Amino acid sequence: MEEQGFCGIYDIRFLVKRGIIITPPTLKTLDAVITLKRATADDVANYTGRARTIESRYLAKLNKLGIVAKIKEGRKIYYMEPIYAVQQHYSLYGDSISPEQLAHMISLPADIVRMILNILKSKK
Questions:
Q1: Taking the model in full, what pTM does it have?
Q2: For the chain, which residues make up each domain, given as ranges?
Q3: Which secondary-structure segment (H or E) carries 40?
Q4: What pLDDT sits at residue 4?
Q5: Nearest 10 degrees: CA dihedral of 102, 67, 63, 121?
Q6: Which uninterrupted H or E stretch holds 22?
Q7: Fewer CB within 10 Å, N- or C-terminus of the chain?
Q8: What is the H or E stretch that residue 76 is in?
């Protein structure tokens, strides 16, 4: 992540400033999402070796904290690493939608989406 210039949303200073504290069990779930990029609760449970219901709770908590994106496709809910989610949706929609609309589509705070978009645009 560091080499891409996107380390800001996982930087401990950024998380503390937002009042986000990640416990070790939640960190294990976050690590799974970062590694898998796009996964259901079942995928994360297979990765961590814990029960799907526990992973589902941790994923919902991470989404509520604003550090994991969530997209519902049909009956399945996919949790995505935020940078990957923004990249995927930005490649589809480009500048035709606002950062706020994009944030709503992937269930992330608009300020985080704006920050990721600014980094993406500066790299082009």
A1: 0.83
A2: 2-123
A3: none
A4: 44
A5: 10
A6: none
A7: C
A8: strand 76-80
Q: Which residues of the chain have pLDDT under 50?
A: 1-6
Instruction: Write out the two tokens for 112.
Output: 């985080």
Reference 55, options 77, 82, 84, 83; nearest CA is 77
In this structure, whether the domain defined by 2-123 belongs to CATH 1.10.357.10 is answered with: no
Residue ranges of alpha helices (H) inside the chain are: 12-17, 24-36, 41-48, 52-65, 82-93, 99-106, 110-123
Largest CA distance in the chain: 41
Q: Which two tokens stand for residue 85?
A: 């989610």
Q: CB of 56 within 8 A of CB of 41?
A: yes
Residues 6+ apart with CB under 8 A from 115: 8, 9
Are residues 86 and 111 in contact, defined by beta-carbon separation less than 8 angstroms? no
